[in-house]
Fold this sequence. Notes:
Blueprint: E1 7-8, H1 14-20, E2 25-27, E3 36-38, E4 59-61, E5 67-71, H2 80-92, E6 99-103, H3 108-111, E7 123-124, H4 130-157, E8 164-167, E9 170-173, E10 178-181, H5 182-185, H6 221-226, E11 235-236, E12 241-247, E13 255-257, H7 260-264, E14 269-274, E15 278-283, H8 286-295, E16 298-300, H9 314-322, E17 328-333, H10 336-341, E18 345-353, E19 365-370, E20 377-381, E21 385-386, H11 393-397, E22 404-408, H12 422-434, E23 439-442, H13 445-450, E24 458-466, E25 472-481, H14 485-488, E26 500-507, H15 522-540, H16 544-551, H17 556-568, E27 579-588, E28 590-601, E29 606-617, H18 624-643, E30 649-650, E31 653-654, E32 673-678, H19 693-708, E33 714-715, H20 719-726
Parallel strand pairs: 1-11, 5-6, 12-23, 18-33, 20-22, 25-26, 29-32
Antiparallel strand pairs: 2-3, 4-5, 7-21, 8-9, 9-10, 12-15, 13-16, 14-15, 17-26, 18-24, 19-20, 19-23, 24-25, 27-28, 28-29, 30-31
Helix pairs in contact: 2-4, 15-19, 18-19
Amino acid sequence: MKNTSTKTISPMGRRQFLKSSGGVALFITASGLLPNILSCTDSKGVERQLTKHDVTAWVRITEDGQITIYNPAAEMGQGSMTSLPLVFAEEMDADWSKVHVEFSPQEADIYGSPGWQPGTKLMFTVGSRTTNSYYSVMRKAGAQARYVLLHSAAAHWQVPLTELSTGPSEVIHEKSDKKIGYGALVAYLAMPETLPDFSETGLKDPKDFRLIGSQIPRTEIPEKVDGSALFAMDLRLPDMVFGVLERGALHGATPTLTNEEDILAMEGVLKVVSFDYAIGVVANTLEAALSAKKALAIQWGDAQAKGFNSQEIYPTYAKMASAPEKGKTVNELGDVDRAWRTAAKTYEADFKNDYVYHAQMEPLNAIVQVAQDGQSAEVWVGSQQGPDTKLGIPGLLGIPHEAVNVHLQYLGGGFGRRSMNDFVLECGSLAQAMSPQPVKLVWTREDDVTYGCFRPLTLQRLKVSTDAQGTLTGFSHCVVGDGGNLVASGARNDHYAIPNQWVEWREASHGVRLKHWRSVGHGPNKFAIEAMLDEVAHDQGVDPIALRRKLMVNATRALATLEKVAEISDWNAPLPEGRAKGVAFVEHGSLGTGVCEISVDRTSGTIKVHRFWIALDAGVVIQPDNVKAQMEGGVIMGISSVLKEQITVVDGQVQQRNYNDYQLLRMQEVPDSIETVILPSAEHPEGVGETATPMVAGAITNAFLRLTGKRLRHLPFTPERVLAVLNS
């Protein structure tokens, strides 16, 4: 049973922590920066006369051989707290049993990843880019740490560095049969004048990896199991007070509070803070704040969303898709208009998807403490970080970036929602009003559902042309919806050999709050693409895998996943009556093809997914077992969103409030088995967190088509919609 007691913490800066900890510390900075040694007091109170550090760094080694490696990414269950330090430890040749992992400071100039766009370094745990973007950074930084240790041993033994090698946490001189542990080397540390800027050729040969690719238990699991892991929701600071906000049911509506005096007179209430879109209450306890929130008398203004009805908008979207004016071009290849004119046959269909809520387990919350003079601030939060590693607090308070210290915590789920810092800024505003008392802001589940930021609603019109032999010659994909890349990503067909392609986005905006949701636009778009392919295959009497095999003629890695999943799912084997299999391919960093086996209750309209198989090419895999866990979680989340999850808006107001009316997949509805086979690869690592989720909708609808001859084109596939299709 989880330990539900809260944790009281006292603010402690990084420098204070280092000064109070025993031993000396070796810090190696990010690639390209020179390392420095920090002077610390050892356990006997003796000050080590070493050079001070002026940059934060990647690794700390104490005299007893214990190693602390800093993780620059958010940890929300995806395993970054292990995978990134593991890459560093591999190149450092660290004994993993002696490694401890902590979050790095939120300083992008040192800990940021260059893998987003040229000339920038970000700390942003989104888009399944963490391992992909940090792989080279962590390898080079780990290799530099190893080089410093080798250099120090060479100076201590007065031997050429080229004669030295390393084993797990030790330097070896074979000629003299000497060995020295990394901890013992701390007393002899000597900084080289320059550090090699290791290229890929100067790093370990993958065949020599000891840690990467092995079954390594995740570092944070034990404390999550025994309840000692700290999430932001667990934290309590001395003199901390609590804040809540009442946000309108109409997104963006302006509030006018009519009973402020009554609210301030309530027991425990300390302050009322007005926002453009909400009224905030600060109280001594969360219970008092919530009671005051219920008592607020607010007159709400109008907003853009007023009058909008989500389930009635699709005919309007269909008219927009039919309009002669083109939208914004997302991808263009060849000439689709010519393909239509010369086609032997064309196919056209509209696919739709409703809004989806993130449903992260831990409610949104943050703690902010603003100093008495307003010139500095401390933040404790579970965040997916962002373009500003200080989460917008410097701009809010009008203070320098370096005056804000962010203490990153574990996240109880993110899925893109916690890459948005609205809740942190809200807390910052309350803390500014209560300075110097720390304020904890908590969103209730009802807050988050009704005022959430959803995966957008879209309509997608797909048109396909084939020649007389049934070969696809043209593929047009028109996306109608709000959010730009939120709806347009994932609509390309780079792994399918279709000579003429056109993807466009036509904008529609309704004032509903939107945000990245796991796999972003890939979920709806890959659903439409993969479903459309099977509709063509069904009409032409072609096996769906045979069709994709032909299309993947120039994409050997993608084709390998298709062939492997056909093998492990025994694609052509007979199935029990009332069951069918469906297939779908997805690229989202990594390449994956999935097959599901389903049945349909024709009385209730309920779809049951019995089994799911995935073949995955993710490049070099750091933690194979964790990758499989990611795929399993992605499939389950995908099934939940495809069969159940739905946000509806009537007159601009969200109709769902909590899990009683926002349905999620239950344990008894999870597939009997989810099997993942990882294809061996020496390619650069790719993300896996968002590969499985978007393949689910296509696989399910394609299995449904094979089973019933009917087409499901509107997500989610609720029992009511399934029955309507079956009875059509």
